[in-house]
Every structure is written in C-alpha cells, then in structure tokens.
Amino acid sequence: MLRARPLGEADRIFTLLSTERGKMDAVGKGVRRAKSHLAGRLEFGNECELQMHRGRSLDVIVSADIVRSSWERLVAPERFAAAQLVAELIDAFCEPDLALPEVYALVDGMLRAIAASDEPRTLVPRFSLRLLAALGLEPPADACVRCGLAFDDARAFLDADVGGFICSSCRERWRDLIELDAEDLRNLAEVAAPRGSGRAAVRARPRVAAAVEQLIAHHLGRKPRTVLS
Ligand SMILES: [Zn+2]
C-alpha cells in the first residue's frame, strides 16, 4: 500500500502497487471503523494478498491478508521519509493499470532494505536509477547524451535540462553544472548496475547522489515533495 485518503465517513481509497495491474486505486469500505477486518492490515508499506470485486468506478477490497508488514520498522522518521519518497516516485512515474513486474520487485526490495537500514537515505540514489532504468529513462553513464562520444577525459557534467550527462566539449563554460570525475563516473555505473551483475554498489558518492536527485527532479518536472531527513 502506497497511499490512502479518506472517502465519505468510513471508507478509504488506497493507492496500491500490485503485481497484476501495477499502480491502482481501490476502496476499503468501512475501513475507518474500529471493527473493520481490514483495519491495521492496509498500512503503508505492507504487502498484502487482496481479494477484490469490481465496483462501479473503483474496485472494492473484500479481504486483505498481510504477506509482509514493514509498518512498524518504517515508522522511524528517516525510514518513513525514504519510504514516502519511494511511494511518491512510484505514484508520479507509474501509469495506472499497467503491470510492471520489474518495478514491483524494485519497490519490494527497496522497502525491505529501508526497513532494515540505519541510513535509509543512502539507498535512494540506487533506487532512483534502477527505477529510471525500469521506465526506460536511465541516462548512459559512459557517453555524452548530446554528441554520443565517450567521456575520454574522465569528466562528465550533469545537464538536467536534457536528462543526462554531457562531455567537457559539449558543456558551455558559463553553466554551473555538477561535475563528475573518474571516481564518480565509476561509482555512477556501479550504483546504476542491475542487481546480481557483479559490479553493483549501493552507496553513491556525494556528487553522484546530487546528480541523481537533479535527474529525478528533471523527469518529475519539480522537486519531490518528500524531504529526506
Ligand atoms: Zn558531448
């Protein structure tokens, strides 16, 4: 469950990420009453097995069984902020009713990692890059997005306006852009690497993390509302 908002007196609309239908909204009827059998199950970050039936406009949740509850571990403020950012990005980037198994697996793994982490914000750059990759928006980490040439001098600059990294020759001198050196570029490739590829890294160097943040803002068209503590 990613998000909930009240509906009428006792109901709630839940925004869910599902294996079968991707991001979707569904109604939990009477869920705000203490006696509801759904109460306490559809908490933020919980993975549930749901039974639904088709409603007039929205599907109605008939039953929910918890597969995994991360809620108790996610309420710690830093973890909560990181998990909220995940929910915000999924909500913003994913079309409703479009199953994306790769994104589901990514979110599942990310929420588990956040729930177990003491420094959850360090997990965000990798999640962001893997999400962009799953959506086909990932910028190349080894070549200029403008001229297509490799970064020969081991320097690259984030040009958030074009959603990628550019080389020294393409960079206009007057622009103040985040610059990545050889170490940063290596780190970028590792942080973006698919799981199990043998070269994946979790932790982004500071300039790489800053560059990823700007990339996300470029694709969102704004800064995320969730501020990491
Ligand atoms: Zn170039």
Report on the structure:
The chain is α+β, with helices and mostly antiparallel strands and 229 residues long. The chain folds into two domains: 3-69, Nucleic acid-binding proteins (OB fold (Dihydrolipoamide Acetyltransferase, E2P)), CATH 2.40.50.140; 70-229, Up-down Bundle (de novo design (two linked rop proteins)), CATH 1.20.1440. It is built from six helices and eight strands. Helix 2 runs antiparallel to helix 3, helix 3 runs antiparallel to helix 4 (124-134) and helix 4 packs across helix 6. It is elongated. The two termini are 22 Å apart. The mean pLDDT is 93. Zinc ion is lined by residues 144, 146-147, 149, 166-167, 169-170.
